[in-house]
């Protein structure tokens, strides 16, 4: 499968924000913060924190390889690092394996670290976003260039709704494993790891457009989800407290 996983970044907006990228192995972060708070030292802070969390997770997986391999809920030991606990909790709620929450957990943990130094932050990690904003923002939904909804959908996020996670899973875009063929399954939650895991769970269910309703019903059964948007071919379905707008 061919894809351009980062092409959507070129269309990102927010002229009042400063952006920088941090890449640590598979972790590829686009960070946006308010210009008034940004200092170059913040880049080093994010890099150091990302390395710290990666080492914790990698060391844990070395001793417990089943954590990485499992595609279903997984119990971790009391000695597991916090990042692994968060992933397992989110995945168990959504009914998937813990690695389904890995991008979301990095976005949230690093976003909260960055918030110690700035007033406003958006952290995007492969389509999985943590944001804490001071003004209304739009999060564009990337469905793939072949979709009839390409470039036409966004979610409006108000400051009072944040901190918030907005995560997307797709069966046709990106390197992440999916059992389905959804163009996009987007989940909004106050927990970014949960939004990530739930997006995977919903995308797994969508193999054809008639499965959109099945995914929406599944979303209603996952505690902690605020809203969802599911796209497959010319079909779109939404549920919960989300506002769909043009980008």
Summarize the structure.
This protein has 247 residues and is an alpha+beta fold.
3D architecture notes:
- This protein has 247 residues and is of the alpha+beta class.
- It has one domain (12-245): Roll (T-fold), CATH 3.10.520.
- Helix content is 31%, strand content 25%.
- It contains six helices and eleven strands.
- The strands form two sheets. It has an eight-stranded antiparallel beta sheet with strand order 1-2-3-4-7-8-9-10. Strands 5-6-11 form a three-stranded antiparallel beta sheet, with no helix packed on it.
- A hairpin with a 2-residue loop joins strand 3 (121-125) and strand 4.
- The longest helix has 23 residues, at 41-63.
- The radius of gyration is 17 Å and the shape is globular.
- The two termini are 27 Å apart.
- Residues 1-11 have low confidence and may be disordered.
Q: How would you summarize the topology of this molecule?
A:
Layout: E1 17-24, E2 27-34, H1 41-63, H2 66-69, H3 82-94, H4 102-114, E3 121-125, E4 128-132, E5 137-140, E6 154-157, E7 164-169, E8 184-189, H5 192-205, H6 212-220, E9 225-232, E10 235-240, E11 244-245
Antiparallel strand pairs: 1-2, 2-3, 3-4, 4-7, 5-6, 6-11, 7-8, 8-9, 9-10
Helix pairs in contact: 1-4, 3-5, 4-5, 5-6
The unreliable regions are 1-11
**SSE string:** EEHHHHEEEEEEHHEEE
* CATH class category name: Alpha Beta
From the spread of the alpha carbons, the general shape counts as globular
| Widest sheet: strand ordering | 1-2-3-4-7-8-9-10
Spell out the CATH superfamily: ApbE-like domains
What is the first-to-last residue Cα distance?
27 Å
Number of domains: 1
Structural class: alpha+beta
Based on the coordinates given, report the CATH architecture: Roll
Strand content range? 25-35%
CATH-derived topology: T-fold
The description of the largest β-sheet is:
8 strands, antiparallel
Percent of residues in helices: 25-40%
Number of strands: 11
């Amino acid at each position: 499968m061919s894809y351009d996983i980062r092409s959507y970044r070129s269309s990102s907006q927010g002229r009042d924000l400063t952006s920088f990228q941090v890449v640590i192995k598979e972790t590829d972060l686009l960070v946006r913060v308010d210009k008034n708070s940004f200092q170059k030292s913040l880049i080093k802070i994010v890099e150091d924190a990302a390395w710290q969390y990666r080492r914790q997770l990698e060391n844990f997986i070395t001793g417990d390889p089943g954590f990485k391999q499992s595609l279903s809920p997984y119990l971790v030991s009391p000695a597991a690092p916090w990042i692994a606990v968060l992933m397992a909790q989110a995945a168990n709620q959504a009914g998937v394996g813990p690695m389904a929450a890995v991008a979301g957990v990095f976005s949230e943990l690093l976003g909260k670290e960055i918030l110690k130094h700035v007033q406003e932050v958006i952290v995007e990690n492969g389509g999985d976003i943590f944001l804490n904003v001071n003004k209304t923002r739009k999060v564009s939904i990337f469905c793939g260039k072949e979709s009839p909804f390409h470039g036409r959908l966004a979610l409006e996020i108000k400051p009072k709704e944040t901190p918030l996670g907005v995560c997307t899973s797709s069966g046709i875009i990106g390197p992440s494993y999916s059992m389905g063929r959804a163009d996009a399954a987007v989940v909004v939650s106050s927990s970014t790891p949960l939004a990530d895991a739930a997006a995977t769970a919903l995308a797994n269910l969508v193999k054809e457009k008639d499965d959109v309703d099945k995914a929406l019903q599944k979303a209603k059964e996952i505690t902690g989800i605020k809203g969802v948007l599911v796209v497959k071919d010319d079909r779109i379905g939404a549920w919960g407290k989300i506002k769909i707008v043009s980008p």
